[in-house]
Specification:
- The strands form 4 sheets. The protein has a 15-stranded mixed β-sheet that branches. Strands 8-7-9-10-13 form a 5-stranded mixed β-sheet, with no helix packed on it.
- It has helices at residues 11-30, 34-41, 50-72, 76-88, 93-116, 120-132, 138-158, 162-176, 181-210, 214-227, 232-245, 301-309; strands at 280-281, 284-285, 322-323, 326-327, 330-335, 339-344, 348-353, 362-364, 373-378, 381-386, 390-392, 395-396, 399-401, 407-410, 414-419, 428-432, 444-447, 451-455, 462-463, 471-476, 479-490, 493-501, 506-509, 512-518.
- The chain is globular, with a radius of gyration of 30 Å.
- It contains 12 helices and 24 strands.
- The protein is of the alpha+beta class.
- Helix 3 (50-72) packs parallel to helix 5 and helix 9 packs antiparallel against helix 10 (214-227).
Length: 526
């Protein structure tokens, strides 16, 4: 709608301008275009006119009335949008409170259904979003308390704190009453099953740790994490085992794990290059990132890697697929204490089923197609293209842009969480949030653009809370480089500030150490 401009002239023209605006606003309101009407009545040249002020108040009340109608029609999102707009334009507080209470009462039915179905995480998320729009009520607060207790029980169980988890479930049952009784009972049985299944696995983990049998330790830690995904001791033990082994071949099979195809066994327990365990702390063995207490007469795991792989002089070029002289391909990053990561350098990354003939850059042990979906780096963002059943946040997609925090589901159950933590970098991280795994024991997949930041900042691509200062891996043409503060060594040679790397480099500095391992090219997609 075009608003006539006032031309310089007599007072009659100036005094009549508010009438034109008022008429236009009333026509927009009658057509249901409240946003347009509100813009008109807030124009500075008519804002204070008595009849315009009166219309502005009526529009806010009309918005509340429309929100009520939308609530009755189960259009909760539309009702909330109307109430937010009415509040911004001065709607009476008492009318807003009454309308919001009506929305809360309507939302209770759906939220209670989610809770009764055993989905407390979804309930907590929905209630938090409603609270952002001031939608609350005594019943919603009770449901939120119930859902938070239930969610805490699940979080405790994921860490192996089963006693606390069962206590929180009992509290959940008291708060939720009969409506959640069946679902809570099912959750209790599942937690008890996981507790009983995890107990002998945890015993085997401690036994293998005590004997410094790192291959067995790695397999035992993976076995524990299958039932207790966030078990702190198992995660520490797995990280410790990685460092002692010095980086596993992605094609190697570990004790207690089924490989995708025939593969040689990794014989690490008998290796004279593996140093003895560090003293146990509270029954769990930890790796000192600075390794200050290591016996200088015995080799470090970095030395072991160097001796195992042979001399690897630092040079700018490293193997990997390259387009137009740009570094490509994949490699493994094994970071002391932090964990292991599969790093993918190409702009198109195939997600699919693991196997000897799989074309997948990210091979996943699950019921998937060999080429299930493709991630495409497009400028600063990513697009997920589906070849088989693929979902983002529960919605099936053919192709869709990804946002930080999105949950990708491939097939029926395999779930990955997408993170793009730094606004100034296109690099992203994929974390597996279901119980599936890759054939190699890694914590996450890094989709590396130009840089990969390892550090304590929330914007780091590889979180490392213990690091005092970040270090950066970055691409320079067909080369991979490392930048870190101060002095550090690359394959035993002293470096300062930055250095090129090979895909067999071992890097060690004050408070950090990591090694790289190349991966063979994947089979071509047919």
């Amino acid at each position: 709608m075009v608003i006539p401009m006032v031309q310089p002239g007599g007072n009659d023209t100036m005094l009549g301008q508010w009438r034109i605006v008022l008429k236009q606003a009333e026509e927009a309101a009658r057509a249901g275009h409240f946003e347009e009407a509100l813009v008109l009545v807030h124009r500075p040249d008519v804002h204070d006119h008595k009849q315009v002020v009166s219309l502005r108040h009526r529009l806010a009340e009309d918005l509340i009335a429309r929100a009520s109608r939308r609530t009755d029609a189960d259009d909760t999102a539309g009702a909330i949008a109307d109430l937010d707009l009415a509040q911004r334009h001065g709607a009476p507080a008492d009318l807003l409170a009454t309308a919001r209470l009506k929305v809360a009462e309507r939302a209770i039915r759906e939220i209670q259904a989610d809770l009764s179905a055993g989905d407390p995480c979804k309930v907590v998320e929905r209630l938090a979003k409603l609270a952002e729009h001031q939608i609350t009520s005594p019943d919603l607060r009770r449901i939120r308390e119930t859902a938070e207790a239930w969610k805490k029980a699940l979080d405790d169980a994921r860490r192996g704190e089963f006693g606390m988890a069962l206590e929180e479930l009992a509290r959940t049952a008291r708060l939720g009453g009969p409506s959640v009784e069946s679902a809570v009972d099912t959750a209790r049985q599942e937690i008890e099953h996981r507790r009983d299944a995890a107990a002998p696995r945890i015993e085997r983990l401690y036994a293998s740790l005590g004997l410094a049998r790192w291959g067995e330790t790695l397999a035992a830690a993976e076995s524990v994490l299958e039932f207790v995904p966030d078990h702190p001791a198992a995660r520490q033990a797995r990280s410790r085992a990685w460092q002692q082994i010095g980086g596993l071949s992605p094609s190697a099979s570990l004790p207690g794990r089924v490989a995708a195809g025939p593969a040689p066994q990794v014989a690490v327990a008998k290796s004279p290059l593996v140093p003895p365990a560090s003293p146990a702390k509270g029954g769990i063995m930890f790796l000192d990132s600075a390794d200050k207490d290591r016996d200088p007469a015995k080799p470090s795991w970095q030395d072991a890697m160097l001796r195992r792989n042979g001399p690897s002089p630092v040079q700018p070029s490293i193997p990997g697929r390259s387009e137009g002289g740009r570094l490509g391909g994949r490699f493994l990053l094994w970071a002391d204490v932090i964990g292991g990561f599969l790093v993918c350098l190409d702009d198109e990354i195939v997600l699919g089923r693991a196997g000897a003939d799989s074309p997948a850059d990210v091979p996943l042990l699950g019921d998937l197609s060999r080429k299930h979906a493709t991630l495409v780096r497009d400028g600063d963002g990513y697009i997920l293209k589906a070849h088989q059943d693929t979902y983002i946040n529960g919605k099936r997609i053919e192709a869709s842009a990804l946002r930080n925090g999105d949950v990708i589901r491939l097939g029926a159950t395999l779930e990955l969480e997408f993170h793009q933590p730094s606004p100034v970098s296109s690099t992203a991280r994929l974390e597996i949030v279901s119980r599936h795994r890759l054939p190699m024991a890694v914590d996450a997949v890094i989709l590396m653009a130009e840089t990969c930041i390892v550090g304590p900042s929330p914007q780091a691509h590889v979180p490392a809370p213990a690091l005092e200062a970040p270090l950066v891996l970055y691409r320079q043409g067909a080369s991979l480089w490392c930048r870190a503060s101060g002095e550090f060594t690359v394959d035993g040679e002293e470096r300062s500030s930055r250095s090129p790397l090979t895909l067999r480099s071992c890097v060690r500095g004050e408070g950090f150490s990591f090694s790289l391992e190349p991966m063979s090219p994947r089979p071509s997609s047919v």
